[in-house]
Write a structure and sequence with these properties.
- With 297 residues, the chain is of the alpha/beta class.
- It has a single domain (88-296), classed as 3-Layer(aba) Sandwich (Uracil-DNA Glycosylase, subunit E).
- The protein is 47% helix and 9% strand.
- The chain has twelve helices and six strands.
- The protein has helices at residues 5-28, 42-59, 91-102, 107-116, 122-125, 149-154, 161-172, 204-221, 231-238, 244-247, 269-274, 279-296; strands spanning 133-134, 140-144, 186-190, 225-229, 251-254, 261-266.
- A six-stranded mixed sheet has the order 1-3-2-4-6-5, with helices on both faces.
- The structure holds uracil.
Length: 297
């Protein structure tokens, strides 16, 4: 077919407009970076993952008392697993998450379980699982909100700008995630373990889906104190509903009976990057961590 120059120009203009509209739509959907030359069909990958999982289940012995291993929760055998169902955050899924987390006997079991856990929709769009960083024997467990872009790429929590600020703040009170000595180290995690698209706040359903794993992590680490960075972990772990500016600096309690852990609410480092004047409040909170830490020892 021959196209005259005017027609050709008109066509490239239309294509450019379409491309621009597509780009704008992608940005509105939360895309904020290009990570490859070719588009990735995440739905197809998820279907593939589900089919592999169904195969594993099908091959596993069907006894109900079979122990849960490598993060695969026994589910009814799906004979026709070629089409993946959309992942939803139903009560059933939260129940599955709870069973899966409860069956874990070590932090390594938790990691294995999370590597194959796909009931949290965030795991389908994230590049990597970001579960923990630091010393697994630490006396202090810090819980943030959700991994961001740098964390997603490196597969570790708090490695971006807010993580660098957190490391500095910790060093001022003699603590570090890199220390091998449990006495002066911390372990860091989040309320969700996959980056929410576009760095949005994780939804309540997403944090509830990950909560059984956070609870199990606390049980396995048995920290002497928990520090919640920002409103999301504070509200999730203490049941408080007020905003972080009202809650910060206050000590709460997590758990019951023999597993009662003091919890401090403080400001999130990314908030401090946006509002540097508030660093003085965070400083007071960190002094409070140090004082409590010395008193518990
Ligand atoms: N903000 C968080 O809450 N967690 C991270 O891991 C990084 C940034």
């Amino acid at each position: 077919m021959r196209i005259c120059k005017a027609e050709n120009d008109e066509m490239s203009q239309t294509e450019a407009i379409n491309d621009l509209a597509l780009l704008e739509w992608q940005i509105a959907m939360g895309a904020d970076e290009t990570i490859g030359e070719e588009p990735a069909d995440w739905f197809a990958r998820s279907a593939e993952k589900m089919a592999q999982k169904a195969m594993q289940i099908e091959q596993a012995p069907s006894s109900p008392s079979q122990p849960v291993s490598a993060g695969v929760l026994p589910r009814p055998v799906q004979k026709t697993a070629s089409v993946a169902k959309p992942v939803t955050t139903s009560q059933d899924n939260v129940g599955d998450a709870r069973k899966l987390a409860q069956a874990c006997k070590s932090i390594d079991d938790l990691i294995k379980a999370l590597e194959t856990f796909d009931a949290c929709a965030l795991s389908r769009t994230a590049t990597n699982l970001c579960f923990i960083d630091g010393n697994k024997g630490a006396r202090i467990l810090m819980i943030g909100e959700a991994p961001g872009r740098d964390e997603d790429l490196q597969g570790k929590p708090f490695v971006g700008r807010s993580g660098q600020l957190l490391d500095k703040m910790l060093s001022h009170i003699g603590l570090s995630r890199h220390s091998e000595n449990p006495q002066d180290s911390v372990l860091i995690s989040n309320t969700v373990f996959w980056r929410p698209p576009g760095n949005r706040k994780p939804s309540e359903a997403e944090t509830l889906m990950c909560l059984p794993f956070v609870n199990k992590l606390i049980e396995l680490v048995a920290p002497e104190m928990i520090v919640c960075l920002g409103a999301t972990p504070t509200q999730r772990l203490t049941g408080q509903t007020k905003g972080i500016t009202r809650l910060r600096g206050r000590w709460f309690s997590y758990g019951e009976n023999e597993l009662q852990v003091p919890v401090l609410a403080t400001l999130h480092p990314s908030y401090l990057l946006r509002q540097p004047m508030q660093k003085k409040l965070a400083w007071r909170d960190f002094i409070s961590i140090k004082t409590k830490f010395v008193n518990i020892a």
